[in-house]
Design brief:
Layout lengths: L1 E2 H5 L10 E2 L6 H17 L2 H11 L8 H8 L4 H27 L9 H19 L6 H17 L3 H14 L11 H26 L9 E2 L2 E5 L1 H20 L5 E4 L6 E3 L1 H23 L9 E7 L3 E7 L45 H11 L3 E7 L3 E9 L10
Parallel strand pairs: 5-7
Antiparallel strand pairs: 1-2, 3-4, 4-6, 7-8, 8-10, 9-10
Length: 403
């Protein structure tokens, strides 16, 4: 038993407990912790950790979809410079806050190897942002843009890696514990992933404004005349392709709505949400009717244009969810499917999309909806099917939620 503080020179931030036990089953976890301790010793100075805590106390600044759209509609050098100067400070604050939170997670989650890896990514990114000199001209701005592009890539696999960390936690917990009751972990993950959505939106928006030939009506990540019917069609086709790959066939998807109706939104966000809802519905219907002589009923998508919201309803006849199971579907520790994550797999290369993921699709889709003032609700009829209501605010005035 080695006191970790003597190894790390008092970096309590990195390992909250004063000692670390190496009583792990197998050499994999043992090696991961030793590597993490070695990396921490080599990489993160005491002054950096103190800097993280200083910046983590600063106030975040939220922006609205409307502001992003109006500001980005004229990507002249002056605006790009202002944007870069804002991001240099804002990203450091947001990343510092998440790094601090990764320090103090309940139930020992902070010490799980996968979570240590995520924390290292956040500390590396904070260090990159703080080491970058003040942005004074367009050369500085271009270099800064390349750096934040690299930060975005570094964090590509945060979601599956954090999911792996939660899985590592679950393996060591009493199986009698009801996971949806672990409120602190769910609240942390909601804050953590909402912040991640915001960070990636801000970086992606700034980077895309450098496109010399943007498509018509596109401002960074935002499409000012996005057709929800068109996005829903593309997302449904992608989901059906995965269903066909996994099961050999897929139920039909029928979409009802005005294809000419448009409103300003982020197509990538909507695609992700509809894809997840349709994928869940396809799996439920396919598995319910797999051994039946009946033809599998179609998934129905209805797009409604309201004054405040655009609402997209995804309806299936996949048998529904028991009422007792409804509170679980938006938790991060619940999935009805076999978990595809493997702690021995290399998460750095990319992730293979499967019909049933690691139980994060619905809670993260709800966060994407809420990011711009919308929401996601599920209503189920056990024995029949499920309706998902995706509400998207069409006003664009709501500020980012800042956890």
């Amino acid at each position: 038993m080695v006191p970790i503080n003597s190894v790390l020179g008092g970096l309590n931030f990195l390992f909250p407990s004063s000692t670390i036990s190496l009583r792990f089953k197998g050499s994999y976890l043992q090696n991961q912790v030793l590597m993490a301790a070695k990396k921490a010793c080599e990489s993160f100075s005491k002054s950096l950790i103190e800097d993280v805590h200083r910046w983590g106390c600063l106030k975040q600044t939220g922006v609205s979809l409307r502001y992003m759209m109006e500001f980005g509609s004229k990507p002249i050098s002056k605006n790009l410079l202002i944007s870069a100067q804002f991001l240099q400070k804002e990203l450091a604050i947001r990343i510092a806050r998440r790094a601090i939170e990764l320090e103090n997670l309940p139930y020992g989650l902070s010490q799980k190897p996968a979570v240590l890896k995520v924390r290292d990514w956040y500390l590396d990114s904070f260090r990159d942002l703080r080491a970058f000199p003040d942005i004074k001209n367009m050369n500085d701005e271009r270099e800064f843009t390349e750096m934040i592009k690299a930060i975005k890539v570094r964090h590509n696999n945060v979601v599956p890696t954090m999911a792996l960390g939660v899985q590592q936690l679950k393996k060591g917990m009493d199986p009698k514990i009801v996971y949806e009751d672990l409120v602190e972990i769910h609240q942390f993950l909601d804050r953590f992933y909402m912040s991640r959505i915001g960070i990636r939106m801000l970086i992606g928006q700034h980077v895309e404004l450098h496109n010399p030939n943007p498509p018509p009506f596109v401002v960074g990540y935002i499409h000012t005349k996005m057709s929800p019917v068109e996005v829903a069609t593309n997302a449904s086709e992608d989901a059906r392709a995965i269903c066909c790959r996994e099961y050999g066939s897929a139920p039909d998807v029928r979409i009802y709505g005005d294809p000419d109706f448009t409103f300003p939104y982020v197509p990538a966000h909507l695609h992700l949400m509809v894809f997840e809802l349709v994928k869940n519905s396809l799996r439920a219907v396919q598995e319910r009717f797999m051994d039946s002589d009946k033809v599998a009923p179609p998934i129905r998508i209805i797009v409604a244009d309201g004054i405040e919201d655009v609402t997209i309803k995804v309806s299936d006849e996949g048998g529904g969810i028991p009422r007792s199971g409804l509170p679980k579907i938006f938790t991060y520790l619940y999935s009805t499917a076999k978990n595809p994550l493997d702690e021995h797999s290399d998460l750095g290369i990319g992730e293979n999309v499967t019909m049933a993921g690691y139980g994060y699709g619905l809670p993260i889709s709800r966060l994407y909806a809420r990011y711009f003032g919308g929401d996601l609700q599920m209503i189920s009829m056990e024995g029949y099917g499920t309706d998902a209501y995706l509400h998207l605010s069409r006003l664009g005035d709501s500020q980012e939620p800042l956890p």
